[in-house]
Amino acid sequence: MRRMHTAAPRGPRDRAGAVAGHSLRAGLLAALLAASLARSLGAGAAPLPAPSGPARPVRELQLAAAPDGALVLAVLADADTFSSGRGTFVARQLNVWRRSGGGWQALGGALNYDHPRPLSSLNLALDERGTPVLAWNENYGDNDIVVFRAWQEKAGAWTDWRARYLGDDLPYAARTRALAARGGEPVLAWGETLRTPYGSRLTVRTWDPGAKVWTRGPAFNDPAAFSRTPALALDASGRPTVAWLQGDVLASNVYARRWTGSGWAALGGSLNRQPGRYVASTRLALDASGRPVVAWLEDAGGEDALFVSRWTGGAWAALGGRLGSGSASAPALALDRGGRALVAWVEERGGVGRVRLARWVGSAWQDLGGVNRDARRDARSPALAVDASGAAVLAWREDVGGVYRVQLRQFAP
């Protein structure tokens, strides 16, 4: 007969030892994770404090740097749950901060024109003086409208441009746009569907203060083709360069054009690694000479692969091959002070998003790996800028205890 042994009950000292052991193991695990992250990012990476903002979940964010390197961060976050009379909805609030020196300064309060409202599709651009200009969708009943504001430095307040709203041809136009800024005013790349004949029209639009209307330039796409996802940047003289996707969804190409002052000039042909494939998420930046760098996603064996090319002045030059090892989403693109590309994106593993970062070093990509605060938690919405020191600053939102929070990290040049 097997003898049964009964464990003696633990006394206070035993329980304290168990708790201490558990705390020690948790501390060691946290230290190992931190050390692993530090090794993957290198010695030049350091966290930046986020502004003391909303305690509710962050849904979208945008980051940009002024010519002097001052950072501007715009954040869309949940506000509360409300009833519309036909059901409940989650209202959101838009706030903006500027970092100059050692801390973040709030630029006014909430930017929403009306409260409570659902908000989405946030755009942020800085003009040649660093003035923040924003566009976003604000929901009114069954429809979104696109609204705008710009920061007025002398007044210390945001413009009231409620009357400038755009609401035609939604939802296509509301989500097929890009934003730049010049002289404190928005410059839009804007999409509209055409029904007779079928197609689409992408144009650059600006506000005419005399007539109080949005003016429209000539289309830069082929109006007979379905076009979408424009990207827009302005050179030192204010002339726009655009990149966009054109063609059927599964057989599209990435194209780019530059405004000459009298018309649109094509910059080469298709940028695709393989023309006529599924492509998505066009991104565009200009170097100091006005030459564009374009990033996009392209089908590669059933995965969304991330690619980058640079315009040399006469042709497109591929910057290496595919970035990362998995299907990519939400790419962000910036150029450092030397005109070298920095790219961030999201890769999923088991439904968990990991934000990754890579830097072009002249002949190859330096992969800085995953940058999540906690590799076990979901991370989304990367945004990139280069600060006054020349360091790359990466912002993203990450699940922290079940709530998405703003995260910021700085990478030495």
Describe this structure in words.
The protein has 413 residues and is mainly β. The chain has one domain: Neuraminidase (6 Propeller), CATH 2.120.10. Helix content is 8%, strand content 53%. The chain has a 4-stranded antiparallel beta sheet with strand order 1-28-27-26, with no helix packed on it. The chain is globular and about 50 Å long. Residues 1-43 have low confidence and may be disordered.
Structural key phrases:
disordered N terminus, four-stranded antiparallel β-sheet, Neuraminidase, 413 residues, globular, mainly beta, 28 strands
Per CATH, the superfamily is: TolB, C-terminal domain
**What is the spatial order of strands in the main beta sheet?**
1-28-27-26
Shape: globular
- What is the percentage of strand-forming residues? over 45%
| End-to-end separation | 73 Å
How many distinct domains?
1
Short description:
The protein is mostly beta strands and 413 residues long. It has a single domain (13-411), classed as 6 Propeller (Neuraminidase).
